[in-house]
Amino acid sequence: MTAIAAPLRRRRSLVPRWIMAWPALAWWTFFFVIPLAWIIVYSFGTVPADNAAGPVALDTLSLDNYGESLSEIFFRVFGITIRTAGMGTILCALLGFPAAYALALHVPSRWRSLLVFLLILPYWTSFLLRTFAWRIILAPDGTLAHILKGGGLISGPLLMLDTNAAVQLGIVYNYLPVMILPIYVALEKIDPSLLRASMDLGAGPVRTFFAVTLPLSTPGLFGGLLLSFILAAGDYVVPTILGGTKGLMVGNLVATQTLASHNLPLGAAMAVLLIVLLSLIVLAAGVVFWVARATTRYFKGPAL
Predict the structure, then answer these.
(1) How far apart are the first and last CA of the chain?
(2) What residue spans define the domains of the chain?
(3) In b/e form, how buried is each residue of 169-197, taking b as 16+ CB within 10 angstroms?
(4) Taking a C-beta distance cutoff of 8 angstroms, is the pair 92, 176 a contact?
(5) How far lies 222's CA from each of 8, 93, 95, in Å?
(6) pLDDT per position as a tens digit, 232-271
(7) What is 75-252's CATH topology?
(8) Beta-bridge partners for 211
(9) Do 214 and 190 contact (CB within 8 A), yes or no?
(10) φ and ψ at residue 46, rounded to 5 degrees
């Protein structure tokens, strides 16, 4: 048996380990890399002068689309996009961390699976339909208006729809579960004995939270911040449905150039610029996170 098993082990050792990940690599390549590469190629093309709605001409490649994209309007809208996505991400973190903390550390284990299921249950419904439902809730004489009038908080119609506040609310509603789940996974992996040891050494609940729980949950918090910010910054549905003319974000600019103006190369260039700028912001955030973590480990020990 040993003589037979040895050649099999040698044969398995010749197979690259990454080959087991080929289904995920194939999915990632087909649905992400190839479309992204095609968008980059289109961003260097031109629109035929005789047929603006026709196919993109790729016989002569140029950087004119990027020069036209780098305008004052684009950077102004990009600033609005970063502000809206950043504020939505912060609100998701402020609401999501307590929810994940309670779910991971204070809810009995027999109820956690049910609550996690209820948390992701809205994602079984179309993103578009869930966002459209908020137009009914936020209508001037809608559900929320009747509740506020009944409580004596407002006396006239609710003037929240088609505003930046409605866009912010839609972003928080749609991406709050994306924030909660990574934090919940990180908190659930914390060994309860570490929290009891902190208490035994004289630390109170507040000090235990800031000295043990919060540092150990930072990978999940950073993951939630990253996912929520990227999804919110690239969102097109929420600002279009809930913001109207006041919900302008970069996604709306790309959609306008692609669908309304039929200028696919210019829309592709704007999309590439958005990806590049978001990548730089995420890279800077990653560097800050790494420096902060390294500094904490240096002053408080490798256990954190």
Answers:
(1) 47
(2) 75-252
(3) bbbbbbbbbbbbbbbbbbbeeeeeeebee
(4) yes
(5) 43, 10, 15
(6) 998 889 999 998 777 788 888 888 888 887 888 888 999 9
(7) MetI-like fold (1.10.3720)
(8) none
(9) no
(10) -135, 160
List the structure tokens of 170.
Answer: 């839609």
Neighbour-count burial for 84-98, b at 16+ CB within 10 Å, e otherwise: bbbbbbebbbeebbe
pTM: 0.83
Residue among 67, 30, 58, 107 nearest 266 (CA): 67
* Nearest residue to 209 via CA among 70, 279, 105: 105
Cα radius of gyration (the chain): 25
**Rounded distance between C-alpha atoms, residue 12 and residue 5, angstroms:** 11
Here the tokens at position 93 are 């973190």
- Helix, strand counts (H, E) of the chain: 15, 0
Say which amino acid occupies 21.
Answer: A
- Kindly list the distances between the CA atom of residue 304 and the CA atoms of 111, 178, 215, 299, in Å, as whole numbers in the listed order: 30, 25, 6, 10
* Both tokens assigned to 241: 């449905």
**Distance from chain centroid for Cα 97:** 16
Structure tokens given for 219: 């990978």
Per-residue model confidence as pLDDT tens digits over 137-187: 888 888 888 888 888 888 888 888 888 889 999 999 999 999 999 999 999
